[in-house]
Design brief:
Layout: H1 2-26, E1 35-40, H2 46-55, H3 62-71, E2 81-86, H4 91-99, E3 106-109, H5 116-125, H6 131-138, H7 141-146, E4 162-165, H8 171-192, H9 201-214, H10 221-233, H11 241-246, H12 257-261, H13 284-291, E5 300-303, E6 309-312, H14 315-340
Helix pairs in contact: 2-3, 5-6, 8-13, 9-10, 9-13, 10-13
């Protein structure tokens, strides 16, 4: 009788334990679907992760959750990142989500013509990665070389596009993704355009970056490209304001005559040919324009102050256009100031 009672008691305890475990595994903390955002850092211990999940009411028992992870051999296989759990998820689903790395995506758009610093600011503002860390890695010559880039930085190769990124990604991961996108687009551009120009990849990207910064109206990009190609052929300086600006440290937005007269490697009013490298990250249209300039013979252009330009064949014609559009624009501005006062 004693043996029989012991067996019944043992079976009862076992049943209760199994029932308790089953209830934990498949019962969510709440029937109410409340979203809980939890960030899991790279290298965090599982015990720390479990305690954080319990604190956020994603699970009810950190200890039992750790036992579940051990049983599934999941302790070292959790993917880092930001997760969106709900309080209506059972522990088994929570664990599976972390094992498969179902992290929260952020849609980040990098505009055309942004510099390394501006791209870094976009990512920092979205809380994806720290601006300073991104800039350091983007300007790491050894890292740039590892990506097949001929230059001291990745400037010009961070392709402007819309990306799905996650918190916890490293600067290396983000930069690699952007450079891979650049390489794909660049290959497409070269394969579809009549590429008969004697230019290296770096020269094409550098010219494309200047076209990107000079173009306000996309319909003009191939004409602007023609102007620069024509000036290079005639051994004329490019005289592009955006290149000068790129070479100025802490530029305050006001380009002066002193800036134009100051010699820097990027001042194309002083140096001949292309600057030593890209001044921004160009998009597809500018890359296409760089390798396929229009057949126009223009050598100069001046802003019409509406996003478009007036193109000229000679310096005489250009100077006349400058008087019409630039001096006329300043006169109109002064008149507006007088009216306001």
């Amino acid at each position: 009788m004693k043996t029989e009672s012991l067996i019944i008691a043992t079976a009862t305890v076992a049943t209760l334990v199994v029932t308790h475990i089953y209830a934990f595994l498949y019962t969510p903390p709440s029937t109410e679907k409340i979203v809980k955002t939890v960030f899991i850092p790279q290298g965090a211990s599982f015990n720390l992760i479990a305690r954080e999940l319990e604190k956020e009411d994603v699970i009810t028992d950190a200890g039992k959750f750790s036992l579940l992870a051990q049983f599934k051999d999941a302790i070292t296989r959790i993917k880092a990142g930001e997760y969106e759990f709900t309080t209506s998820m059972p522990p088994t689903e929570v664990l599976e989500m972390m094992l498969s790395g179902q992290v929260k995506d952020y849609t980040i758009t990098v505009p055309e013509g942004y510099s390394i610093e501006e791209v870094a600011m976009v990512l920092d503002n979205a809380d994806i990665v720290k601006m300073s860390e991104f800039i350091v890695k983007a300007k790491d010559k050894v890292f740039a070389a590892s990506l097949g880039i001929d230059g001291n930085t990745v400037e010009g190769y961070l392709f402007p596009d819309t990306y799905k990124l996650t918190k916890g990604m490293t600067p290396e991961e983000i930069i690699k993704r952007m450079v891979q996108r650049f390489n794909k687009v660049f290959s497409e551009v070269i394969s579809t355009k009549s590429y008969g120009l004697n230019m290296s990849k770096r020269q094409i990207v550098t010219l494309a970056s200047i076209i990107e910064k000079e173009t306000g109206d996309r319909s003009e990009s191939h004409i602007i490209s023609a102007v620069f190609h024509n000036r290079i052929k005639k051994q004329m300086r490019l005289e592009s304001d955006p290149t000068v600006i790129y070479g100025i440290k802490n530029f305050d937005g006001n380009l002066t005559k002193k800036h134009l007269l100051t010699h820097t490697p990027y001042n194309t009013y002083k140096v001949y040919g292309l600057p030593p490298g890209p001044i921004a990250n160009p998009g597809r249209a500018s890359l296409e324009a760089a390798v396929a300039p229009s057949p126009d013979p223009y050598l100069f252009f001046v802003s019409r102050n509406d996003g478009t330009h007036y193109f000229s064949r000679s310096l005489k014609e250009h100077n006349k256009a400058v008087r019409v559009y630039q001096k006329g624009f300043k006169r109109n501005q002064n008149q507006e100031i007088v009216k306001k006062n």
